[in-house]
Specification:
Chain A has 5 helices and 2 strands. Chain A has about 140 residues and is mainly alpha-helical. In chain B, the strands form 3 sheets. A 6-stranded mixed beta sheet of chain B has the order 7-10-11-1-12-13. In chain B, strands 2, 3, 4, 5 and 6 form a 5-stranded antiparallel beta sheet that branches. Chain B has a two-stranded antiparallel sheet with strand order 8-9. Chain B starts with about 20 loop residues before the first strand and ends with a strand. The chains are: A mainly alpha (about 140), B alpha/beta (about 650).
């Protein structure tokens, strides 16, 4: 098992960069205005994980500073990697973040689709419904 | 009253003579003949109707007129009997006029039949015919100041609003009989002209004449401007009265409207508060949702990762590369421990190291992994509260939404009510009212300024006239004429001094009395004192000497005017009864009570006769307030299908 360094900046697909920017500016969903790209990346990753959509990034654009990722989220990213590849992945930081990037790439597509088709308030209500369902699961 | 206007035959009204119950109330429906009684008194005493003047040939009662046969004659008469009681009579005034029906069937006044007579007490207390009836009439009820005894309550309310200074000054001049002094001065000036002779041209005299001429022209210009402003003031007052009438009509609705508008504003405030709270809560709820989402969406992975790590530790399974490399190096390449112990295959030391190799923790990553393990546990615990938090914020949100719904419902009802009350119409009336009040204030202010200027011009004029007279005196060559001119001059000077002193004295007295009476009648903490200025403006001042007249209520203004009238009446020394027509017509019910109480206090023992509109003015509340002070109660009632009214005395009430 190789030991690697974590990237300084996380990658997203070039084609999704504008969507991230628009989300951040509240153009697509006003309630998200002001959230940082790093946070949106985590949300996208969570969507990708939950809906099991992992997509390899074709045109990589490293635009999200890793330092902006909250410490707690770092462990979420590591937990995701451990759950997929076992504890031996811990030294391979590059691989850990690559997994997160691919899930985020899948997740952002889901978010894009939901926001595109949803009526006002539907995004939150669907989100809440899913979260409640998860919480109730033992 | 005999056949006088609506009164057929003889109708008698006996006003209360009981000092403990000095009020007499005469109530009637509109047009029944209430105000006509005041005019009957005025006609009897002065030979003219003052309140509702009508042609003389209509004075005969219509029913009586119809009864007349050709060449029949009939009298219209009014008799006023004054005294302490029905037997102790001091004066009897009688005025009559004769009518007849001519051959053509037309009823006419017989020329020169109007007679006025008076009976007065002689030295032995016997009633004898007065040589000149006008003399005792003037003594008892001087015509010049009749408005101080017989007044229209409605006009009284605006007494000081319109041409305050002129009215105040005029009233003071009336009771001081100043017109007599003025005519004496004028008379003396006319006489002295005869003693001047044809004086030579004198440049100084010409200069003084030019000054006087210029100031007189300025006074004339001011008078013209005053007249213009008075017309504007009158128009604005008429318009204001009309607006006030409309507002009074809407009074009930207006009060409700103000209440509703206040309530509407309150609810709008609460709605805004609730909407803001809801907005904040919704944002908080979204943030909460978003912050929980990553952990909950990845809950399965977190649990799996934890399980993997736990299994790693529980099984003692050697993890990852570094540990393996270290032990391989030790056991396979060096075959010696770092302390020098031989690790030969089969040796006890080698067996021990091999045991450690199998039991070694996750070396460099142990700390990181253990930390992660704790973090994951904390994340899972933290997010297990999600539902509880959601439930509590859901309740809060529902409560707020329900509250907003309720307030919106209430607001809808109120808005509907407000629309029903013609909000725009009433608001427009209020803005018209404000505009007309502004106009009245502007005109009054201008009139006041112009009158102030006239007072100053008058002073200049008098000064120059004095100089002129002194010069004229010098220029008279004839000694005898000079002496006579001098006598006139001293007389004029003397009378002018008396005039000024008298006016000042009476003004100060009236000011003090008005102040006393007003304060006795009304408790208005803002009022410090009533003041009549040097320019004869009656002002109500607060403790900072600021005029607060404009902020007084209609009733308070009426009490102020009544106080002024009472002060004038007391100052004039004429102890006559008071007759007030339509006293409560345009004032609020609560103010009416205040006014009645005020009148009770300040007019204690004075005979006061009220002429009230049935129902509108004589309400249950007014009657309850006045009952204990009322000695006599009359009703003037129109007789159905007849052209006459009858006077009904209510003995029991």
């Amino acid at each position: 098992m190789k030991s690697t360094e974590a990237p300084r900046e996380l990658a997203i697909d070039k084609s999704k960069h504008k969507f991230y920017e628009d989300l951040k500016d509240g153009k697509i969903f006003p309630e998200l205005k002001g959230y940082e790209m790093a946070y949106l990346f985590i949300i996208a990753m969570a969507y990708g994980v939950y809906f099991n959509k992992r997509i390899k990034i074709k045109n990589m654009k490293r635009s999200i500073s890793k330092s902006y990722i909250d410490k707690q989220f770092e462990w979420l990213i590591k937990a995701l990697a451990i759950s997929k590849n076992g504890v031996d992945i811990i030294p391979d930081k590059a691989e850990i973040y690559k997994i997160a990037e691919e899930y985020a790439n899948g997740g952002i597509e889901i978010i894009e689709r939901i926001l595109k088709d949803s009526k006002p308030g539907e995004f939150e209500s669907t989100m809440e419904k899913e979260l409640t369902k998860i919480q109730k699961e033992k | 009253m005999g056949n006088y206007r609506p009164f057929y035959g003889k109708e008698t009204i006996l006003f209360s003579l009981n000092p403990k119950k000095p009020f007499t109330i005469i109530y009637a429906g509109t047009g029944s003949g209430k105000t006509t009684i005041l005019d009957a008194i005025a006609w009897c005493l002065y030979g003219k109707e003052i309140h509702k003047p009508q042609p003389l040939d209509t004075m005969l009662n219509d029913d009586k007129r119809d009864e007349l046969k050709k060449n029949d004659m009939v009298n219209v008469s009014v008799e006023i009997i004054m005294g302490e009681s029905e037997t102790k009579i001091d004066y009897i005034f009688t005025r009559s006029i004769s009518f007849y029906k001519n051959k053509e069937g037309r009823v006419e006044v017989i020329p020169n039949t109007e007679k006025f007579s008076a009976k007065v007490k002689d030295a032995r207390n016997n009633l004898i015919d007065a040589a000149e009836a006008d003399v005792p009439a003037r003594r008892v009820f001087p015509e010049d100041i009749q408005h101080l005894f017989m007044f229209d309550g409605e006009k009284l309310q605006h007494f000081f609003e319109i041409d305050n200074m002129r009215k105040t000054r005029q009233a003071i001049l009336d009771i001081t009989n100043m017109n007599l002094i003025e005519s004496a001065i004028k008379h003396l000036k006319d006489i002295s002209k005869d003693y001047k002779g044809d004086e030579e041209e004198n440049p100084q005299l010409e200069k003084l004449n030019a000054f006087i001429d210029s100031v007189e022209k300025q006074i004339e210009r001011n008078i013209i401007e005053i007249k213009e402003n008075e017309d504007n003031l009158k128009n604005a007052t008429i318009k204001l009265n009309s607006v006030m009438e409309s507002l009074n009509k809407a009074a009930g609705a207006d009060k409700d409207l103000r209440k509703l508008i206040n309530e509407e504003q309150k609810i709008r405030g609460l709605l805004e508060e609730n909407n803001n709270a809801l907005e904040t809560l919704e944002k908080r709820r979204f943030d909460h949702l978003l912050s929980s989402l990553p952990y909950l969406f990845c809950k399965k992975q977190l649990l799996e990762a934890r399980e993997i790590i736990d299994k790693t530790y529980e099984s003692g399974e050697p993890p990852i590369t570094i540990r393996t490399e270290f032990f391989n190096l030790l056991l396979n390449k060096r075959k010696k421990c770092i302390c020098g112990t031989d690790l030969k295959p089969g040796s006890a030391a080698r067996k021990n190291v091999e045991t450690y190799k199998n039991k070694t923790p996750l070396s460099d990553y142990e700390e990181e992994i253990r930390h992660g393990q704790a973090e994951m546990l904390s994340l899972l615990r933290e997010n297990s509260k999600f539902l509880e938090e959601r439930k509590s914020s859901n309740e809060e949100e529902n409560k707020l939404k329900q509250s907003i719904k309720d307030w919106n419902n209430q607001l809808g009802l109120i808005t509907k009510d407000i629309k029903g009350l013609k909000k725009e119409e009433i608001e427009s009336l209020y803005s018209q009212k404000d505009f007309q009040i502004g106009e009245i204030e502007r005109c009054s202010q201008r009139i006041g300024d112009l009158r102030g200027e006239i007072t100053r011009y008058d002073k200049d004029k008098r000064r120059w006239e004095e100089e002129k007279r002194a010069l004229e005196k010098q220029l008279i060559k004839n000694t005898e004429m000079k002496e006579k001119f001098g006598i006139c001059d001293s007389g004029i000077e003397f009378l002018e001094t008396i005039r000024e002193e008298l006016i000042t004295e009476v003004k100060n007295e009236i000011e003090k009395r008005t102040d006393d009476v007003f304060k006795q009648s009304l408790i208005e903490p803002r009022v410090e004192r009533i003041c009549i200025t040097d320019d004869f403006e009656c002002q109500v001042l607060d403790k900072y000497n600021k005029s607060i007249y404009a902020s007084l209520s209609s009733g308070q203004k009426q009490i102020l005017s009544t106080s002024f009238m009472i002060a004038l009446r007391k100052e004039s020394g004429f102890d006559s009864p008071i007759l007030i027509d339509y006293p409560f017509g345009r004032i609020d019910v609560d103010v009416t009570a205040e006014l009645i109480n005020g009148l009770k206090k300040v007019l204690e023992g004075v005979q006061v006769n009220f002429f009230l509109i049935e129902g509108k003015e004589l309400t249950d509340l007014v009657w309850q307030q006045m009952k204990s002070y009322t000695g006599v109660l009359y009703q003037i009632k129109k007789i159905k299908d007849k052209r006459r009214s009858e006077v009904i005395k209510h003995e029991k009430y």
